[in-house]
Amino acid sequence: MRLAFVLGEIGSGLRRNLSMVISVILVTFVSLTFVGAAGMLQLQINQMKGYWYDKVQVAIFLCSDGSTAPGCATGPATPEQEDNLRTLLQSPAVAQYVNDFQYESKDDAYKHFKEQFSNSPIVDSVTPDQLPASFRINMKDPEKYEIISETFSSQAGVETVIDQRQLLERLFSAMNAASLVAVSIAGVMIICAILLIATTIRLSAFSRRRETGIMRLVGASKMVIQLPFILEGVIAAVIGAALASGTLWAVAHFFLEGVMSKQYPDTAFISPGQTLILVPALIGLGVVLAGISSLLTLRRYLRV
Amino acid sequence: MIRFENVTKVYDQKARPALDSINLEIDRGEFAFLVGASGSGKSTFLRLVLKEDRASSGAVYVAGQNVANISSWRVPRLRRGIGVVFQDFRLLPQKTVFANVAFAMQVIGKSRSVIRDTVPEVLKTVGLEGKENRLPHELSGGEQQRVAIARAVVNRPGILLADEPTGNLDPTTSMGIMGVLDKINQNGTTVVMATHDDDIVNEMRKRVVELKNGVVIRDEAKALYTSMIPVVGQSRRLRDASGRDEQPQVILPRAGSRAEARAELRTAGEGQA
Lengths: 304, 273
Known about the structure:
Number of helices of chain B: 9
Helix content of chain A: 55-70%
Shape of chain A: elongated
Radius of gyration of chain B: 19 Å
Order of helices and strands of chain A: HHEHHEHEHEHHHHH
Low-confidence stretches of chain A: none
Strand order of the largest sheet of chain B: 6-7-8-3-9-10
Oligomer: heterodimer
Order of helices and strands of chain B: EEEHEEHEHHHEHEHEEHH
Radius of gyration of chain A: 29 Å
Helix content of chain B: 25-40%
C-alpha cells in the first residue's frame, strides 16, 4: 500500500514537472557523458599500454622468422644466443642498470597479444611463430636506455631494442590532457546538474505543498513525505546516466570498432563491452548527485 | 490530555511574548473553546500542541508526554494522535471526498481493506453519506468542512484541534458543524476549538478559555463567549487558589433538548444584562 502510494506520488510529481524533469535528464546526460568520455580515454590508455608498459621500460626483441635486421642474418634466435643474452644481462656491467628482467617466449607473447588486441580483427591472422620472443627489462633509471640499446643492438640474435615509453608517452600525455579537459567540463556540468535538480525538487515541493502539509498534519513519516521527491530526482538522474552510458557504448561500437579499428588495425582499441564497466559508475554518480542535491533542498524547503 | 506548565512562547525578542506563562490543563474527553481576539495566542497554543513550534520556556504535555522530549522522527507519531481542522478546509481539490479522507490513512500506511471499511463509516458520522465521489468544488462550504473533519478523525486521534472551523460558514451551517464536533466529542475525543464565533460558544455551553495578549484571563466551565462574571481578575484569583475545577458562580441547568437550553440561556443572559 505504502509502496503503491509512494510510486503514485512519484508519477504525479514527474508528470506535473515534466519540462523540469526533462532538463534534469539532459543536463545529467551531458555531464555524465563527459565523465564517461574521460573514463573511456583512461581505459583506452590502459588498453594501449598492454601487458608490459607499467612493468618494464625496455624491450629486447629477438630474431624470429623473416627478421631483416643485421643481427638476424643467421635466422631466428637460437637457444644459445638467448643464453648468451641472459648471461650478458646478468653480468655486472649491465646488471647495475637493471632492476629486473623477464623473458617472454613466443607463446607468452602470443598470449599477451591476444589479450591486448582482443577486439581487433588482426588477432585471427597472427600465430605464435610470427611474434618475436623478447627480454623485458625493468630499468633502475629509465634514462639510461641508451646504454642497454648500445650494448644489445649489435648482439647476435637481437632484432631490435626498443624504449617503449618513448613511443607511447607523447600520445598518452595528449590523451591524459584530453581526459582532464573532459573532467573539467564534466565538473562544471555536474555543478549545473546539482543546482538544476535542487531547483526541480524545490518547484515540485512547492507545487505539492498542499499535499505535504496535510501529510505532515496527519502524521505521515518523514520518509513517506520526502521519498517521492528524492526518488523523482534520482529517477531523472538515472535516466540521464543511462543515456550517457548508451552514448559511450555507441561511440565505442560505431566509431572505435566500426571506423578506427579498421583504419588503424595495429592499434588496440577498447571494445564496446569494456565501456559497460563505466555504466555502474555513471549511474552511481547520477544517484549520488540527485541524492545530495535533494537532501540539501528538502532540508530547507520541506520541513517535517 | 493537554497540559501547559508555565509555557511562554516568544517569536520576537523585542515584542511581547505570544504566550506568557500559560498554565492550563485540558482533560481527556473534554470540549474546550479557546477564545480571544486575533493575536491573543490561540494559534500559537495549537501550534505548540502539534510541536510545530517549540516553547521558549515551560513544558507542554500531550497525552502525558512532554513534547520537548519527543525526537523529531517521533513527531509524526504525536501528530497521528491529533486531528486538525482549519478555517479554510485544506482539501485536495483534485481528489474526491472519499480520496481526501483516504489520503490521511494512505500516508500512514493503512491497508486498502482497512481504508475501504473505515472511510464510509467516518463519512457517515459527519453526515456525508452518498457524497463519496464528489469533488470538493461540488460541495458546499459546510460539506467541505465535514470532509475536513472526517479526514482529521479518520485515524481515531485522541485529540481534535479546530482552528476557527466555522470561520467561513454561515450560522446555520456552523451549528451543523458544531453538531458533528459534539458527536465526535461524545465518542471520547478531546476537542479544543479556537473560535471568534460568540453564537456558537453561547450555544454549546462548554468550557471556555479566554486568552488576551498571551495570558489566560478566563477559564470557566459551561461558559459564555463573554464573561458572566463581572470582575475577571477576581474569578481568576479564585480559581488559582482553589483549582481549575471550581464551577463558575452562574450555573445554568442543561436539561432537555438543546433548543430548550438555548431558550433558557437567552432568558438568563437577558436577565443579567
